[in-house]
Amino acid sequence: MTTLKGVEPFDPARVQAAYDAAAEDYASAFGDDLDRLPVDRAVLDRGADQLRGRGPVLDIGCGPGQVASYLAGRRVSAVGLDLAPGMLAVALRTTELPLACADMRRLPIRSGSCAGVVAFYSIQHVRRAAIDAVFGEFARVLIPDGLVIVATHLGEGEAYPTELLGHAFDAIGGTFYAEGELEEALARQSFTVEDTTFRDPLPHEHQARRIYLTARRVRRGAS
Questions:
Q1: Does residue 191 lie within any of the structural domains?
Q2: Which domain holds residue 204?
Q3: Quick one: DSSP state of residue 75?
Q4: Which of 80, 122, 185, 201 has its CA 20 to 30 A from that of 178?
Q5: Which of 111, 79, 83 is nearest to 95 (CA)?
Q6: What is the CATH number of the domain that holds 143?
Q7: CA-CA distance, 76 to 127, in Å (whole number)?
Q8: Sign of the C-alpha dihedral, residues 18, 71, 151, 191?
Q9: Does 180 reside within a domain?
């Protein structure tokens, strides 16, 4: 595993620049990816059934908007948030959903105002030590009994890619999580995990096993 010295690969500015550079080709490669991902669709469908009609649902790291659009197609009030303006510019061409540029570490959202948070393949771009703060921010914006749905890569350590779809950029950080690690982090922020799903990678994807967690925010002190 490569390590970096003297730079911070998880710096939001580095991550933003990388995804801005690859935005157009990313949308071409992955914009319709849900069509061939039945496990992802099933996780989102179960979430949509619980979130429909309850209030706004944030799609964190929305990219070209495919997850937010999928949820909207199931009558969920989805809002797309992404760190990269280039990604949002692409999303604006393909969806009429509300979109905003935002960092998941500091969401520009009123506390207790959202029914759900969906983060499909975005939390890997924060350091392991910061995941409690990120989940705490998700909890802050949720209503009582709100849902968070997370998808990310299983594994060990970190990776530091410098290229995506032919676009070179300064190294950015990616965190791999061990099974059980995210459940523990969610529990520390007053979430109860209600569903855990796994799948193996497809040939066109990064070759790491996937984990999907659906967790419900519970009131502190509730029995």
A1: no
A2: 35-161+197-223
A3: T
A4: 80
A5: 79
A6: 3.40.50.150
A7: 30
A8: positive
A9: no
